[in-house]
Amino acid sequence: MRGPVLTLILAASLLVGTSCARAVDVPPPTVDNTKSSGPLQTAVLAGGCFWGVQGVYEHVKGVKRVLSGYSGGERSTAQYQTVGTGKTGHAESVEIVYDPERISFGEILQVFFSVVADPTELNRQGPDVGNEYRSVIFYKDDTQKNIATQYIAQLDKAGVFHAPIVTRVDPLKGFYTAEGYHQDFLQHNPDNPYIMVNDLPKIRDLQREFPALYNSKPVTAD
């Protein structure tokens, strides 16, 4: 979990200009769904601390709402302190509600692999260690499962990353919204040392790597 000691370490890193974020130039998926009008869709992803994951997707065009929460475990254990024990099966996750006419599921995954998470890190992301920080694509149907699994195979075959991708592709059994103080945390706390070191660089990476998808005015969880 992110506590006082980690905050001091991150603050020191900030003073020397060290950032935990690094964007990777990844190609778009060769297998994707066609953009078309219809009801809003949802995607549930886990890629480390949900503060930053939520913050990035709130800046993506076509996204209508992003919630921080927990997926992978039972409803009864979906509380921040309990999830932090690493014994619940939950991963810190986000639920992304998006317009399928403006953005595809594959594009959401392209942002994920490029900007949001390092998919080669097992049970951790940056300074956060534990299976609650693992990277997972929680698919809601066979279409999402097919796009995700084929995209991972595509990226591995192309050697985009320095090591094999360990991001899991698991069925979505439930998404449980996190406590209110976690929602829009990046927007409410841009001066937090953890946010400044780990997450604000990802917003800048999104703007640089995906200018056509970048939304300067973020949506909110409200």
Structural summary, described in words:
- With 222 residues, the protein is of the alpha+beta class.
- Helices cover 33% and strands 18% of the residues.
- The chain contains 7 helices and 8 strands, in the order H-E-H-E-H-E-H-E-E-E-H-E-E-H-H.
- A 6-stranded mixed beta sheet has the order 7-6-1-3-2-8, with helices on one face. Strands 4-5 form a two-stranded antiparallel ribbon.
- Strand 6, helix 5 and strand 7 form a beta-alpha-beta unit.
- It is globular, with a radius of gyration of 16 Å.
- The two termini are 25 Å apart.
- The N terminus is likely disordered.
Throw out a few tags for this protein:
alpha+beta, six-stranded mixed β-sheet
Total number of helices: 7
Low-pLDDT residue intervals, each spanning 5 or more residues = 3-19
> What best-fitting shape do the alpha-carbon axes yield?
globular
The helix/strand order is HEHEHEHEEEHEEHH
What is the number of strand segments? 8
Beta strand %: 15-25%
Helix content: 25-40%
Average pLDDT confidence is 92
In quaternary terms, these chains amount to single chain
| Gyration radius, in Å | 16 Å
User: Largest sheet, order of strands side by side?
Assistant: 7-6-1-3-2-8
Largest sheet: 6 strands, mixed
Outline of this structure?
The protein has 222 residues and is an alpha+beta fold.
Could you outline the blueprint of secondary structure elements for this entry?
Layout: H1 4-15, E1 41-47, H2 50-57, E2 63-71, H3 80-83, E3 91-98, H4 105-116, E4 124-125, E5 128-129, E6 135-139, H5 142-158, E7 168-171, E8 175-177, H6 185-188, H7 193-209
Parallel strand pairs: 6-7
Antiparallel strand pairs: 1-3, 1-6, 2-3, 2-8, 4-5
Helix pairs in contact: 1-7, 2-4, 2-7, 4-7
